[in-house]
């Protein structure tokens, strides 16, 4: 039997003979199923050469023949090792059909085993890297190359095992490279502290440096009474942004705050570093309204023109604002547009007519009180 079968099972053998005085071989059998065959009808005393060829589904191999002639009166010695040389060569190739999008996802603490079939003749040499460095093999992280595959093993994977793992297969025909991405999902890191306060009732923080492999979906704020209070939840709905206004605090009491992140995988981070001690004090400032000097006098315009009434408003907390004309509160219409921001507002009236003239009152209100400013408008039009 040949040492190399050409990559396909041997289906049969062809046995041929020739007399030592002739150059041409004649076929004895084309369907020998075993590694031995009795040849009939040999002329006694004649010397013969014999040769054997192996056949598989891709064709017939090179012959192996006896080195010396055999006299028919003698039992021939058995053939020496018959080798059909496999001259077929193939560029290396990785079979990645078993790895979806060349990405392997695991939870922290799991064992990862990546087995990739390797094709190529002669058998390729396979090497692995982590990012752009040769993969350092340890008891926890190592790879093994078998006759048909390469196997990467990562035991008790951690967040640091995430990344790209390039692998290369090389033989005398050439080389091929692929990249496998490993994602290790873990709990997110804690939000970055310390928590900063730019208002006595609001706290701000920054997102975690690591999201655990999933998008951050919300935060929980906890507060603690000083000096000996327990940590308690300060929010009762999901916090999406990195800021939150804490209510229900006691004036002159001292507190610490911390934040916990949660990701789309349902994992919860460790708490952030606590804030510095914060003493809660009411900080209320009554509203004030500031307008341009042109609004101190009556604003005069012609019918059909547009007029704008603008004002800046201050106060703590930010005041609420309303516009009225007479006793009626004004609202947005196709003709009248009202814009209100935290600390400014503008009223725009289009295609003005005589009845749009009159007194427009802006009122700003917060817990500290209220402020008003009256804008007087006169629209000049033809007499009715």
From TrEMBL:
Residues 1-75, 187-283 form the Fibronectin type-III domain. GO terms for cellular component: M band. SUPFAM superfamilies: Fibronectin type III (SSF49265), Immunoglobulin (SSF48726). GO terms for biological process: cardiac muscle tissue development; sarcomere organization. It comes from the Eukaryota. Residues 92-183, 287-366 form the Ig-like domain. This is Titin. It comes from Anas zonorhyncha. The lineage of its organism: Eukaryota, Metazoa, Chordata, Craniata, Vertebrata.
């Amino acid at each position: 039997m040949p040492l190399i079968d050409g990559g396909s099972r041997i289906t049969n053998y062809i046995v041929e003979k020739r007399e030592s005085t002739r150059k041409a071989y004649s076929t004895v059998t084309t369907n020998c199923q075993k590694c031995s065959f009795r040849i009939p009808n040999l002329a006694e005393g004649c010397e013969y050469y014999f040769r054997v060829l192996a056949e598989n589904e891709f064709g017939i191999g090179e012959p192996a023949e006896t080195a010396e002639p055999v006299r028919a009166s003698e039992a021939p010695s058995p053939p020496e090792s018959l080798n059909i040389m496999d001259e077929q060569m193939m560029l290396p190739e990785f079979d990645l059909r078993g790895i979806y999008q060349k990405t392997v996802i695991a939870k922290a603490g799991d064992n990862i085993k990546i087995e990739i079939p390797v094709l190529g003749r002669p058998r390729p040499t396979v090497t692995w890297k982590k990012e752009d460095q040769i993969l350092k093999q340890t008891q926890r992280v190592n790879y093994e190359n078998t006759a048909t595959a390469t196997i990467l093993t990562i035991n008790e994977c951690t967040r640091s095992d995430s990344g790209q793992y390039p692998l290369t297969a090389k033989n005398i025909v050439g080389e091929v490279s692929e990249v496998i991405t490993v994602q290790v999902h873990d709990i997110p890191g804690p939000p970055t502290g310390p928590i900063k306060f730019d208002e006595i009732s609001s706290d701000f923080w920054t997102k975690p440096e690591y999201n655990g492999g999933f998008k951050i979906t919300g935060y929980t704020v906890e507060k603690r009474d000083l000096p000996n209070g327990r940590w308690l939840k300060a929010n009762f709905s999901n916090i999406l942004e990195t800021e939150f206004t804490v209510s229900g605090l006691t004036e002159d009491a001292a507190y610490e705050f911390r934040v916990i992140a949660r990701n789309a995988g349902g994992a919860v981070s460790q708490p952030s570093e606590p804030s510095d001690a914060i003493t809660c004090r009411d900080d209320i400032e009554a509203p004030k309204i500031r307008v341009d000097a042109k609004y101190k006098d009556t604003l005069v315009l012609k019918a059909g023109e547009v007029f704008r009434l603008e004002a800046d408003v201050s106060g703590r907390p930010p005041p609420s604002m309303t516009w009225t004309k007479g006793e009626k509160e004004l609202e947005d219409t196709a003709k009248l547009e009202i814009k209100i921001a935290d600390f400014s507002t503008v009223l725009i009236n289009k295609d003005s007519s005589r009845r749009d003239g009159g007194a427009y009152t802006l009122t700003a209100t917060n817990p500290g009180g209220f402020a008003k400013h009256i804008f007087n408008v006169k629209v000049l039009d033809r007499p009715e």
